[in-house]
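[step 3/7] fold_predict: job queued, chain A
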Amino acid sequence: MNRVPATPVLATVLFFLTGALGLGYELVWIRKATLVVGASQIALATVVTSYFLGMGLGSAAVARWLRGRRRSPLFVYGLFEVGIGAFALAFPLLFRGLEGAYGLLYPLFEAHAAGLFVLRFCLVFGLFLVPTFFMGATLPLLLDGLVARDRSVGALTSFLYGLNILGAVLGVLVTSYFAIPRLGMNGTSLAAGCCNLAIGAVALVSFRGLKPLHPQEAAGATAAAGPFYAALAFTSGLVAIGYQVAWARYFSLFQGATVHFTAVLLAVYLSALSAGSMGLALLLRRGVHPLPVLAVVQPLVPMLAFTCLEYWVLGTYGYQVLDDWEVVPRWHFWSESVDATFIALLIPVAAVILLPVALLGAGLPAIIAAAARGAPSLRSIAGRLVFWNTLGSAAGALAAGYALLPGLGLSGCFAVLAVLSVAVGVASEWRFGRGERAQWRHLLRPGYTLGAAALLYVAVWASDDVTRRTLQHYEGGGVFEQSELIAVEEGPVTTAYVLDGPGSMSLGAGSVRLAVAQRDRLSSQALQGYLPALFYPRAGWPESVLGIALGSGQTFGALLRTPVKRMDVVDISGEVVELALRHFAPFNQPLGSDPRVTFHLDDGRHFVDRASDGSYDVVSLEPPPPTNENVYRLYSLEFYQGVRRVLRDGGVLVQWLPLNLVTPDDLRGMLATQARVFPFTFVVQNGSVDMAMLSMKLEAPPRFETAWLKERAELLGREPQMKDTRWARGDRYLAASVEGITSLLITGPDDVAALEAPTLHRDDDQRLSYSSGDRQLWYRYVDDGLERLSFAALPVTPFRRLQQYFADTIPAERLEEDRAHRLAPLGFASPRRLADAIRSYERSADGPGRARKALAVVELFAGGHRVGPALEWIERAIAADPGDGRPEHVAAARRFVAAHAAVHGEQIGGWLAQLPRAQAAAPLAEAMAAELRAFEERDAARRSRYLWE
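[step 4/7] structure written:
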């Protein structure tokens, strides 16, 4: 009697959820592990390999285990799910143990690369062994517990494999888009652990009375799983993951590696694998042999991969400016937020990889189905082949990332993978037809024909350099206008390149332009290098420097022009280091030949965590944009605590604050996080729209002596581009003067501490990777105007309040004007003009005159998106002349709303709602309300074009 008639349905549902949770764990645990051992190419390879190896061992062990046991494999599956859940709940505690062990043992191995690799591998492998072992065992157990009939082996294997992968798609999307932003990485692990415990409990209760379908394995059942199928499974895994690595590198050439893009790429890849496996299940259910299917689809993979490579342009998404700051998407589908963060990424990725990956998805299930033609042998054979496939996946990640891309470039990597893919197809055709005697007819089989055609296609296609072609024709932002691509380096971490233009040279990595070197003036990167020396809060000069994220090297080269005695430069990319030293020597001192400099190829965060206490006077870093994946770890509270530890008393931290690449909430969070560890944090200008966060390790406020600043100004004056120059046209003071240096200060520690930040950035939450609640602003304005919005969130400290940090009196009013010249492109109103406009308002006696003067003040505030003060002055204008309906004033009020409704519409609406009835009836207020309603109607009409808003 069948006690559990719904067993297959329940088991498949649970297996789907298992796939979702397993992928979520992979995303969380690997990211957490790299926080300890680093995210350099070797460290990351260690983590990924240990993760894959644990899964492979689980599948291999279960192939030999449980023979003749009384319990159903489905019951054992439940036990394994409980084990995974228990580990997930204990993960935060176990992870702290890993941190402690690595910290204790690292000094013993740091001087030996091989020993350090072994240490990392043993610790991470030991941490992940139990859960990954259980994860790797789930597919063989489910197959052994559900497949009863020989004729359903292939179809059900493919179906379950595809279903598990489909669950992984759900896991990557939920984890990346919802769980980590809201729960953090530890919270995500704990929540998933509870889900695993629930799955395990359901399985244990539901399957406790089931008997094994195959209590004894048939004699010779494993004979088919010999070296041939093991090699096929290994190569299939290598090719599949190798393509994933290659496609990820291809997309990085024109698409920023944000967490959203990484999630979408992985989700599409897994969806396509699932579709291919499900499609194979339909074919096998009709009696088609799996080997001919494999022989046909594998040679088609490279042909489709190369054909579809540039189809991503079909899904180009963007915004257009309608009027002032009213920016709207060029197309509408689900909602603006979903379109920008998901659909706009989904379409180009799917256009490129969906078809070839769907064919790859038929690989492993077809091999298992071909090797295990009988149900009793399925668990044993599936376990062994999953083991070899998993090892192949690890080998594919290593081979593509650390051998093929650096050695052959992206085109060569694709070509090698194509040959291997064709080899899998040809081998499958040979195995299926090896018994034929008529060899000439045998050679006409579809697998051989398609294999030959694919190799010819690959030979023609690979003759072109896809990296250079993509960079020259498709890299965004107009980087290549009037510039020549003179060097490209493809390596394990990134593809770096150098552009030579008429007035500058640029260094890029993927889609990010890391640095620009100007031939006729001091670049913002070079000025950032001088900042910690100019504002060093002690007499004399800093002597020891840690530089993180080399870029072109201008920042650290500038510091070498000061009396620095020792400098450690850390960068994660050997390609960037190579190009910076080879092509930017005229701009960076040169770093490569200076005996004071030591280079370290490492993750900057990892280097700081391992450095000795009080090692440096200066820590300077200019990393990629913080929205790039994994860069958040250089803006976290824990990172700043590490920096404070390695700084000496009086030491200085300086870090790039890219206004044009962060949102207002991002900016507040970044400053608040740094100020939590460094109370004496300033914002300093080092370019037209570039700022830097400058923090000091002090117990009392700094106090700069004029003699110090004068000595440092003289050194800055010896910079060729600084002689007799000013920061901006109209400045009173030379750049290389005490006053010129002082005028660079934008915000003081008191105003930084008073910022209301939505969150402090920590390692666990990754909030900065997603933006801190205002991501939509980033998508709308990153190409035009984001720097003005972000600057509006930054208080500008009057120099009279900055006086406390200087031993001698500073010319505050004149410094205000010099600073205002430089900040004018950001909409900052000159304090003198603002004071004059306010005095003019106060001197005006009649109501109409005061209203007109109040509106003049409004314009000064509104230009810099200081909407709060602007609304206060509009209220004063209404109070001065409630009946003011002059056309020019009404037009000014409407222009104000039209220019700010898209970003500040809610704030304006709230202000209008709180006006007293008499003021709300004033012509100016009514005009503003009418303009706001018109905007809301247009916005509602646009939103109605979405399926869901």
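[step 5/7] annotate
The domain at 227-462 is CATH 1.20.1250.20 (Growth Hormone; Chain: A;).
Confidence is low (pLDDT under 50) at residues 1-5, 218-224, 436-441.
exit 0
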